[in-house]
Amino acid sequence: MMKDYAIRATGYGGKVRLLACTTTQLMNELQKRHGTSATVSAALGRTVSIGAMMGLMHKGREKLTLQVHGDGPAGRIIVDADANGNVRGYVTNPQVDFPPNEHGKLDVKRAVGTTGMIYVVKDIGMKEPYQGSSQIVSGEIGEDFTYYFTQSEQTPSAVGVGVIVDKDLSIKASGGFIIQLFPGTEEHVITELEQKITGLGNVSAKIEQGYTPEELAAELVDTLEILEKKELNFSCQCNHDRIVNVIKKLGLAEVQSILEKEQQSEVTCNFCNEKYIVEKHELEQISKELEGTE
Ligand SMILES: [Zn+2]
């Protein structure tokens, strides 16, 4: 299977910005790690594609987190991405599932909910991270981020993302595009773009047919110029030391209570579902260190 990647490009002689990606393999990895249902895979996959593409809008060590806090039964969707194509993500209740909606599509809106907030946190190396937010307007994710870009970042955008899930819950296709208008884009370009977006049809169906990000982009804009291509990979930065630090932050009373009750602590990383065991002697060490500071 072809590796996932994203491209950053311009169209119409630099008048619009375009990003496109495939995230099929990434989503297969996340589906296996988290055991997501078909409906949740669709919700997570759409968010993962948007996060991966937004990562390419940044550079160097910059990182961003997308949080979809809907009022639906799936709970929260959290996706981390960076400028180097590293992506991870999870959903609070991965097994929530529904029958297809009236259009025969996975009922993402029902799992996510139709009210709530979207948060975008960008760590751009400053003391305080940038945080943008907007309301959930549909629960279908693509429309919600279209609204986010327009409202919170004042950038008129079109977002098309989709996921196709197989009967065995593996991911057949995942990916999408983001088109953003630079200030002063002429009316005729906007009209043409709208026609091309409609003409493209279902983006996940195109990816299932084998369309690459470049081929998707070529269908969406004239005079396509590709500026960057980045491989996308699942990556979680958790490790034993980080988990020990998380336990330290619980404080002395809590650590002593764990020692009394369970002797050791089992911690699961939300992002990758890896389990870490922090052993008795480590907990005792933490407890000693905390006694010294509290
Ligand atoms: Zn992890």
From TrEMBL:
The GO biological-process annotations, alphabetized, read as: protein refolding
Note one Pfam family from the annotation: HSP33
Q: Which InterPro entries match?
A: Heat_shock_Hsp33, Heat_shock_Hsp33_C, Heat_shock_Hsp33_N
Give compartment(s). Cytoplasm
Main localization, broad class: cytoplasm
For this record, the Gene Ontology CC terms, alphabetical, are: cytoplasm
Q: How is it modified after translation?
A: Under oxidizing conditions two disulfide bonds are formed involving the reactive cysteines. Under reducing conditions zinc is bound to the reactive cysteines and the protein is inactive.
- Domain of life, per the record? Bacteria
Which NCBIfam families has this protein been placed in?
PRK00114.1 (NF001033)
HAMAP family found in the cross-reference section: HslO
Q: What's this protein's function?
A: Redox regulated molecular chaperone. Protects both thermally unfolding and oxidatively damaged proteins from irreversible aggregation. Plays an important role in the bacterial defense system toward oxidative stress.
**Protein family membership:** Belongs to the HSP33 family.
What is the protein name for this chain?
33 kDa chaperonin
Question: What is the originating organism of this protein?
Answer: Desulfuribacillus alkaliarsenatis
Q: What is the lineage of its organism?
A: Bacteria, Bacillati, Bacillota, Desulfuribacillia, Desulfuribacillales
Gene assigned in the entry: hslO
